[in-house]
## 1
Amino acid sequence: MNAIAKNPVENNEVTFESEVRQLVADQRDYFQSNATRSVEFRLAQLMKLKELLLENEDKMHEAIMKDFGKSKYENQLTEFFPIIDELNISIKNLKKWMQHRSVKTNLLNFPAKSYLVPEPLGVTLVIGAWNFPYNLSLTPLVGSMAAGNTTILKPSELPAETSRIMAKIINGNFDPNYLRVVEGAIPETTALLKQRYDKIFFTGSPMVGKIVNRAAAEHLTNVTLELGGKNPVIFHKDAVLKTGVKRMIWSKFVNSGQLCIAPDYALVHKDVKDEFLKLAVKEIEKANFSPENHNFVQIINERNFDRVVGLIDPEKVYYGGTHNRGDRRINPTILNNVTLDDAVMQDEIFGPILPVMEYETIDEAFEIIKGIEKPLAAYLFSDSSTIKERFLQEIPFGSGGINDCVMQVTNPNIPFGGVGNSGMGRYHGKYSFECFSHFKGVLDKPTAIETNLKYYGYSEKQLKVIKALG
Ligand code: NAD
């Protein structure tokens, strides 16, 4: 089993696949022994994970710095804090979440109690994406552990150092029958996906999401897909521009735009577009993106660097547009007078480019958004309650914000997830527990009283009573 964690790529495919098969079988046996079910076990494992992360914090900061130049400040804010917060919330609330949840009993079943019993699903596979490699692997893992499952975690292979350190910390300290990190790229993930799980939790692109969903369908496995899309941000003519643009610029360029819920493109009312553009430049310059300021993350690899640079149409550059391939850094860039035909509007950007499109009526802006696949997030800057309500009613999106961007993800009481092409299912806080649980519905009847309504020997009188109960 060690070979799985240490050198997956060196194993030949047959060996790797048989080892994975064995790992899944061992985890299933362990799960079926009931070892993971008690609240004491779950809490002990969650606390152990928290302790290990805190002990290894510095090493984890160093690893992500090596992978793509992310400073410990940004790592703390966008990776470490959310994971520790998720752990704290789970540890604090687990007992409550595990309780039976009472629901009303209908008259037909009276007298009885009705309730839902959360039960763990079994063996889970969690596949992470690269852009927040710790957060997107460990936050779902916390949900899986809290819900009482065993877990195989496959972090993204692109940030190699962070994948390695998660494997080292977890595989060196947890029983593999309960929790195992399996490192690897497409061949290893393909081998993992051939096995039968009770839950697959995937974060990544819609394209790979379809591959995962097809593999899950083979075994009718429960799936959560956390995918991406083109997230719109609207600046209506009544928006408070100064504060709004400041909030939006941070959200767009943090992690160099490699954030699934970053605003992808801006729709700006024609009356305020000039002011919007001036303020946007001012905010970018104020932020002074540079490695010395710890706020200028590299693009993850050269393939993505070339892809993002290829989206910059020099004729539309309003600001920025410069880049350095050796360093894999692209300066924050604004494109103006963008149309739906431009390359930058064909797919999710996932990089530090902000295309700006102008609109005259809010219907026009809504029409553009509705013409694109349902986004993971959508944002509106406006002071008008009518426009806000129309935005909420007419625009489909996973999660979003009014007069702010991205920060909805930091509130664990707001479920996080997409809709349509941007995903299915939701997690964070208690929603993570629910995501990795099945809720058994139970009708619990006393035997002292028996109503004879349902039994044969139907009569007109019975019919009247049943009708009255409906
Ligand atoms: P990706 O889909 O390329 O990779 C995600 C995972 O799938 C990785 O672990 C990778 O090893 C594996 N994988 C890649 N190709 C595979 C294949 N052919 N078969 C099996 N497994 C494969 O995504 P990415 O590049 O890591 O991340 C970027 C995408 O993820 C963007 O679309 C972004 O919006 C989305 N994303 C979504 C969220 C969210 O929470 N909804 C968060 C971050 C990123």
## 2
Amino acid sequence: MRIDIITIFPEMFEGPFSHSIVRRAQDKGLVEIHLHQLREYTSDNHHKVDDYAFSGGAGMVMMIEPVARIIEKLKGERVYDEIIYTSPDGELLNQPIANHLSTFENLLILCGHYKGIDERIREHFITKEISIGDYVLSGGELAAAVITDSLVRLLPGVLGNEVSALSDSFQDNLVSPPVYTRPRDFRGWKVPEILLSGNERLIEEWKFEQAVERTKRRRPGLLEV
Ligand code: ADE
């Protein structure tokens, strides 16, 4: 998979993409992530990417010209399965959307900024708008990093079998059951006996019951879909 990200803050991705699973996936050649500085596609000396909104109102609006230039350049180089815009009014990211996007070859993500982007960008270039939650971030970079992380961990070969993405919370509309490691007894706080029993069938039943119980208590909405 290849993911291209258009941003005015490429440095913001250094942390999330240089560690852990996303880093390992890149090192193994399972994903290529390319960051593009939008300011390099401006035509003025000040590398301006935003301007005042027609009709006034608070906040600057991302201009169409540099965005059109970079998107058209990238589209000339390969076919994108989706061109995603990160925005609080987009479709709410969930596991089925992440699963679906992870099956694609080429994704392009445009990070939103300021008060918004010229509506014509959305109309003419964007094929999917994604929000990562009902709150407003300062920009789309963190959202793009979250989306990328949620996809990359699903790519075949990225996770070892022992931590397969199939056992993640949400894959079966259940949150994960509790897990424990050594010591068996910490200050009298004991690991449930059943997990030490070695009885695979009973352990699987226990995990399933715990997952259902937790989901009912914490995220009942997941059981309604
Ligand atoms: N940009 C600002 N807030 C956002 C959100 N909640 N999701 C995606 N992009 C955003």
